[in-house]
Amino acid sequence: MTDKNIETARLQREIEEYIGLGPNSLVYNFGESNGKTTLHLVTVNPRHNQSFLFHSEEGYDRQDTLKRMLKYLKSHKDKESSYTIQWKHTDDDTLQTSYFSAKNVQNALDKLFYDRDPNSITVFSVIMNPIT
């Protein structure tokens, strides 16, 4: 029998290695609802000290949800487009640039606005990046 905590740590390590961001760049927000577990994987950008939704998955428990997230990571580039969003925080004059993988423009904006007041950010442009 596998220890669930060890399995959870292994899956999280594999996700972190696959994404390839620096230390402390991912946050695993788990939630429970109607007998299902939801994982909102959030990235933290140290350059402008903001967090954004990377992707959400739903499963039966934490391990199942982490496995689904890993499966998504291994195949998402084939299913989603890359977007560049230029924005600024309403109390800062610095123009920021962030990149998102998303199904469409609305999904990219949803990731930008995840878990924040939509009035706190002004969006200047959303560009679908060329396929390479």
Any overview of this molecule?
By secondary structure, the chain is of the alpha+beta class. The chain folds into two domains: 1-79, Double Stranded RNA Binding Domain (2-Layer Sandwich); 80-132, Ubiquitin-like (UB roll). It is 33% helix and 39% strand. The strands form two sheets. A three-stranded antiparallel sheet has the order 1-2-3. A three-stranded antiparallel sheet has the order 5-4-6. α1 packs parallel to α2 (62-79).
Radius of gyration: 16 Å
- Adjacency order of strands in the biggest sheet: 1-2-3
| Major sheet characteristics | 3 strands, antiparallel
Relative helix content? 25-40%
What is the CATH class name of the largest domain?
Alpha Beta
> In the CATH scheme, what's the topology name of the largest domain?
Double Stranded RNA Binding Domain
SSE pattern = HEEEHEEHE
| Average pLDDT figure | 91
Structural class: alpha+beta
Tell me the number of helical segments per DSSP (H or I, 4 or more residues long).
Answer: 3
The assigned CATH architecture of the largest domain is: 2-Layer Sandwich
Shape label: globular
How many independent structural domains?
A: 2
**Proportion of strand residues:** 35-45%
Low-confidence stretches: none
Q: What is the number of strand segments?
A: 6
Distance between the termini: 44 Å
Give structural attributes:
single chain; 132 residues; alpha+beta; Double Stranded RNA Binding Domain; Ubiquitin-like (UB roll); 3 helices; 33% helix; 39% strand
Describe the SSE topology:
Layout: H1 4-19, E1 26-33, E2 36-45, E3 50-59, H2 62-79, E4 81-89, E5 96-102, H3 105-113, E6 121-128
Antiparallel strand pairs: 1-2, 2-3, 4-5, 4-6
Helix pairs in contact: 1-2
